[in-house]
Write a structure and sequence with these properties.
492 residues; mainly alpha; two-stranded antiparallel ribbon; 2% strand
């Protein structure tokens, strides 16, 4: 409960009503920023005078920065104030977009996209703020909406970016996202209040550096393995370095007084299993995003392609974002009535069903859109349930950091899916005008692989221990929010 309510001076009603929409806007903008560059990728080598390999780093740098900074900024939010760190992440995101708007230098563009990667922490920080500031009756639906903003923003951002790129100079797109980012930052500064819940202590700089190095090695090996060769010295060296660094990092975390990530807490089944489910769900959902756009834009000469433009493709994917917006409140109701593990299991099952539809027929436009819509509904159910499982299982003062780790594992799942889908499609090609293009069989294999992972996520959800809120639950939440105050009362 907000401190102002405890003192009997509630915040202005308008700001209180707008807190959830403003935070949801921030999460959607983060997804828009990540997606907006996709329509540009084929033309960026010509526009920037650089190689396709260099241009690919505009995506890779965002992925790496987001993966590294999400747990770090989550921990910083728990320590120094979630609103403060949220505003910093939104400011960095907007600054990165502004740099992209004024330059064509690929080195600056890659650096600016890395800045935008910091916005990946917006969702876990916002979820933690919602837990601290909203009453239980409202927090469930608000957290569910916040979790779905990643898909909503991506679905809305692709057609927006495609339309701007098709009808205007490519820098205009970044000016538009800069303006949207500035608006989101200003609204967040006005509408979002700081949470009084803190977890004070010394920031674990050694842990942050170790985790950053380990994650960079891991994600570089995953994202570049297809280009460099999975058995190349670079990939093998990165993999070995990752194992050594993360092993040393785990040892340090177990000994640190104020660890960046509480591994003892993370090892509990009610925390570890949702983290693993996030990894599988991220993998399962991402194949649809990767493959659907390629299918829709494939030449008609392939026998399966629909030869759509980027803008038409974005519009076909738009219903998925709208469905996620509608389904997230349903996930909150399922979590409240049956438990978050039931919502997660239902989401994973629906994702698997969506891939069954895609495997049955991926040549007719209406069935492609319908299958993608089913997948979006399942993703909304699963993604909305994951933070609820975390919130039920960890102290309030660790919500941002633990949710940051959960988002990190989703990111690793997506990166792994990208590499796996690329490997499948590379090995199943046909020649079209002298160019190798994926076969329909390759796409169906990718769907089957993702559907299998969704089934694994479903099975995992079933074994997550159910949440039990004993009579002392309220007491424990108060202890988590203000441990020193409770101990002082008990001493009396």
């Amino acid at each position: 409960m907000p401190m102002s309510h405890i003192l009997g001076a509630p915040a202005p009603p308008l700001r209180e009503r707008l807190t959830v929409p403003v935070l949801a806007l921030g999460g959607s903008l983060m997804a828009v920023m990540q997606t907006a560059v996709v329509p540009l990728l084929p033309d960026l080598p010509r526009l920037t005078g650089s190689s396709p390999a260099a241009v690919s780093w505009m995506v890779t740098s965002t992925l790496l920065a987001g993966a590294v900074l999400t747990p770090v900024l989550g921990r910083a939010g728990d320590m120094y104030g979630k609103r403060r760190v949220l505003l910093l992440a939104l400011a960095l995101m907007t600054a990165g977009s502004m740099v992209c708007a004024v330059t064509s230098d690929i080195r600056l563009l890659i650096a600016a996209r890395a800045l935008q990667g910091s916005a990946a922490s917006v969702v876990p920080l916002s979820i933690s703020l919602l837990r601290d500031e909203l009453p239980p009756a409202r927090s469930g639906s608000a957290v569910a909406l916040m979790s779905s903003t990643v898909g909503i923003g991506a679905a809305l951002g692709l057609p927006l970016a495609a339309a701007i790129v098709q009808y205007a100079n490519w820098h205009v797109m970044f000016w538009v996202t800069s303006a949207l980012g500035a608006i989101g930052l200003a609204l967040a500064r006005w509408a979002v209040r700081e949470s009084p819940v803190r977890n004070p202590g010394r920031f674990d700089a050694v842990g942050a550096i170790g985790l950053s190095i380990g994650l960079i090695c891991l994600l570089l090996a995953i994202s570049q393995g297809g280009d460099w060769g999975w058995t190349s010295p670079a990939v093998l060296g990165l993999t070995g370095a990752m194992v050594i660094v993360l092993a040393a990092w785990c040892r340090h975390q177990m000994r640190a007084r104020n660890p960046l990530v509480d591994l003892r807490l993370a090892a509990r089944p009610r925390v570890a299993l949702p983290h693993l489910a996030a990894l599988f769900t991220g993998f399962a959902f991402y194949a649809n995003s990767l493959v659907t756009a390629q299918l829709l834009q494939a030449p008609a000469e392939t026998g399966y392609g629909l030869d759509l433009s980027i803008l038409q493709t974005g519009l076909c994917m738009l219903p998925g974002g709208l469905i996620m917006l509608c389904v997230s409140p349903i996930s909150a109701r399922i979590s409240a009535a049956r438990g978050a593990k039931t919502a997660l299991a239902a989401g994973a099952a629906v994702i698997a069903a969506g891939y069954a539809v895609r495997i049955a027929d991926s040549e007719q436009l209406w069935l492609i859109i319908a299958g993608s819509a089913v997948l979006s509904a399942g993703t909304a159910l699963a993604y909305s349930a994951l933070p609820t499982l975390i919130i039920e299982s960890v102290p309030a003062h660790q919500t941002a950091s633990v949710n940051g780790v959960n988002v990190l594992l989703r990111t690793i799942g997506q990166a792994t899916c990208s590499a796996a889908v690329a490997a499948v499609l590379t090995h199943h090609t046909m020649s079209l005008g002298g160019t190798a293009v994926p076969t329909l069989h390759g796409y169906l294999l990718a769907f089957g692989m993702a559907g299998t992972v969704a089934v694994l996520a479903f099975a995992l959800a079933l074994v997550i221990p159910r949440h039990r809120d004993p009579a002392g639950g309220a007491r424990q939440r108060i202890r988590s929010a203000a441990p020193a105050a409770v101990e002082a009362v008990e001493e009396r």
